[in-house]
Each structure stands twice: as C-alpha cells, then as structure tokens.
Amino acid sequence: MFKGILTIFMILSFFLGFSQFDDEDEYGKEFIWGVTTNTNSSLIGGAVFRYGRSHKENIFETFGFELVNVAHPSELKYTSSQNGSTFIWGKQNRLLAIRGQYGRDKIIYGKESQKGVQINANIAAGPTIGIVIPYYVLTSGGEYVVYDPVRYTNLQSIQGSGKFLQGFGESKIIPGINIKAALDFEFGSFMRNVIGIEFGVMAEGYVKQIVIVPTKPNRALYTSAFFTFFWGKRIY
C-alpha cells in the first residue's frame, strides 16, 4: 500500500512539476492548522500545526507540530452488556505521539488568482516524544484497573473504560523520530486564506518496543498512511 502511494506521488510530481507558479501571487508566510486521521488511529487521530516561510523560489521552509493518538491495529471497541459503556478489550497502554517536524514544501502547481487548485509536495522529519499512558477499565466489581491478561480473561468482567485523563500521572516518556512525505491540495477563491486536504505516508520509530496490547505483537517502528484536513492564513 505504501509503495503504491509513493509511486502515485512521484508520477504526479513529474507531470505537475512543469507547471509555472504565478509570481504575482507569491506569499511570504503561512500558518496552517488541521485535524488528521491515519491508519494507526481512530476517525479523528489528532491535531496538527505548521508554520511556513519563503525559502527559495516556489519552496517554503516549514516548522510543524503534531499531537496524535497511535493505536494498535488489533484494537476493537466493545459495548458493556451491563451499562452500555464502551471500552477496548485487551488494551494495556495508550500511545500519544508529540511530533516536531522540520521540512520543505514545494509548490508544483500554482493556482491562478481567485480560482483553481494549488498542489504542494512536502517532506518533513523531526523528533517524537511518545507518551505511554496506562489504559484503565472499570471492572464489574466497580474497580478501575489496568488490563491484566492473566486476571481478566473474558469481556463480562469489564463494564467500561476509565475516567477522562485517568492514568496520565503514571505516564512514561519514550523518545523517537519521525519522517513523512505528502501532497497538499489547496482550494478556495481567497488567496490570503488556506483550506485543503493532505495525503501522505509516515514512518516513526522509538528507542524501544511499546506495549499497547500485551497479547498481540507490539513494535518500536510504526508506518502509516494519513489524511489531514487543514485551513489557515497567508501573509504576503
């Protein structure tokens, strides 16, 4: 899947790279916010911010920040038969990734004033702070516990998930690094406003394996395809 996406990116970059950007529409800075999802998260995976400034002709220097939940591929939500609450059976830890990113954003197809679509290709990399948070569940006895595969062997022993922010005080920090490549498609008729979507792939590695679901294989390297909806402002 990832090789296929990268191949599409390369083909688009080759054909669109011949397009010319209108110098009259060049901007110096941009501020981007967005919400993102990926193949390692739920529908809303997290939030992103990116600041870009002109570096060379049609190339921007970017500084990014992401706060994203990373889930195990085997995770499934269940509904308690006792009270209707939902929980993830077998999950022991949550992984929250805080990513810093430095990169380049190249305009490969510039839109005409007040209309069209602008297409950018970007690549970025940087450090990751992985926050490993114990995932609490509520047992049928009314006790909040972290999942133990030996002690809890059936779904009927769990009533629901823990309280909001429960477990944050017991978090552990696992450092890592990340790298991503993407294509941005920007729409809208106002040149000073930005709105669009981003498709890309990412690889992220940590210094050691992170246990999310203890009864399944866990890993230190995560790869994903992602989708981001973003908006923002430009300064000319």
Describe this structure in words.
This protein has 236 residues and is mostly beta strands. It has one domain (2-235): Porin (Beta Barrel). It contains one helix and 13 strands, in the order αβββββββββββββ. The chain has one helix at 2-16; strands at residues 29-38, 46-56, 59-70, 77-79, 86-88, 93-109, 118-134, 136-139, 144-146, 158-161, 172-187, 193-210, 219-235. The strands form three sheets. It has an eight-stranded antiparallel β-barrel. A three-stranded antiparallel β-sheet has the order 9-8-10, with no helix packed on it. Strands 4-5 form a two-stranded antiparallel ribbon. Strand 11 (172-187) and strand 12 form a beta hairpin. The longest helix has 15 residues, at 2-16. It is elongated. 29% of the residues are buried. The model is unreliable at 8-24 (pLDDT under 50).
SSE layout:
Blueprint: H1 2-16, E1 29-38, E2 46-56, E3 59-70, E4 77-79, E5 86-88, E6 93-109, E7 118-134, E8 136-139, E9 144-146, E10 158-161, E11 172-187, E12 193-210, E13 219-235
Antiparallel strand pairs: 1-2, 1-13, 2-3, 3-6, 4-5, 6-7, 7-11, 8-9, 8-10, 11-12, 12-13
Features:
eight-stranded antiparallel beta barrel, mainly beta, 1 helix, elongated, three-stranded antiparallel beta sheet, 236 residues, 13 strands, Porin
Rg (CA only): 21 Å
What would the average pLDDT be, to the nearest integer? 86
Calculate the terminal CA-CA distance, rounded to whole Å. 39 Å
Instruction: Let me know the number of strands.
Output: 13
Strand order of the largest sheet: 1-2-3-6-7-11-12-13
Structural class: mainly beta
Task: State the helicity in percent bands.
Answer: under 10%
How many helical elements? 1
Main sheet specs: 8 strands, antiparallel, barrel
> Strand percentage, roughly?
over 45%
